[in-house]
Structures are given as structure tokens and as C-alpha cells.
């Protein structure tokens, strides 16, 4: 059965403005969704990610060396990846149906891609 990657993007400023109770509710909803996917045998990986401010980006120069290492995410965008799931789905339509079930948070957008490796 094919696997699909679900990347959850959210507006970091909005997410940072959430109260601890609001944040806990979102985390609890994602934990419940992951538990349901695990029970169905679909979940291959899933994780929330640390704040994008903690990211480090490694990029090769066009010549291939030296690597350029910078603090922070590669791009300065309002939306950043906050978490991911890798789930088994029968097809793209089922993947999209599952994407619609991923718990909503203030500004969540979910990108769905088939895993090809």
C-alpha cells in the first residue's frame, strides 16, 4: 500500500500566541489522531517539530563546497512546518480524506505527497 507524507504548516506568530490550554488541546487532538492511525496500522511516522527559530539550514554552494550553515529556517515565511505524519493509504483520494481529518489548529494547512522511495 502506498505511503503518503502529510506536512502540517501553520502561521508561527498565531501558534505562538495560543494559550497553554489551547496548545495542549491541539497536542491532545494530534495524539488522539496518531493513536487512531497507529491502531489502524497506517502510521509509519509522526512528529511535531520544534519552533522554526531553532532550525539550522545546511546548503551547498553551486560548486558543491563548502557547505553554508546558517541558523534558522531557509526561508522567512509566516507559515512553517510544525509537524508531519507518514501514513499508509490505498490511494491519493484516501490520503486527501485523511488529511481532512488531521486536527485543526489556528492556521493549519496540510500538504500531501506520495512517498516514492
TrEMBL record:
Q: Which SUPFAM superfamilies match?
A: Dimeric alpha+beta barrel
Q: Which family does it belong to?
A: Belongs to the YciI family.
Task: Name the domain of life.
Answer: Bacteria
Ranges for domain YCII-related: 3-116
- Entry protein name: YCII-related domain-containing protein
Record the organism: Actinorhabdospora filicis
Pfam families linked to this entry = YCII
Amino acid at each position: 500500500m502506498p505511503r503518503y507524507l502529510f506536512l502540517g504548516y501553520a502561521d508561527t506568530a498565531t501558534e505562538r500566541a495560543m494559550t497553554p490550554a489551547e496548545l495542549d488541546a491541539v497536542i491532545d487532538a494530534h495524539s488522539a489522531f496518531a493513536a487512531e492511525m497507529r491502531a489502524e496500522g497506517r502510521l509509519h511516522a509522526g512528529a511535531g517539530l520544534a519552533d522554526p527559530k531553532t532550525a539550522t539550514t545546511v546548503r551547498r554552494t553551486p560548486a558543491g563546497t563548502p557547505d553554508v550553515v546558517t541558523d534558522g529556517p531557509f526561508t522567512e515565511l509566516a507559515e512553517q512546518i510544525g509537524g508531519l505524519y507518514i501514513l499508509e493509504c490505498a490511494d491519493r483520494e484516501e490520503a486527501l480524506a485523511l488529511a481532512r481529518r488531521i486536527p485543526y489548529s489556528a492556521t493549519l494547512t496540510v500538504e500531501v505527497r506520495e512517498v516514492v522511495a
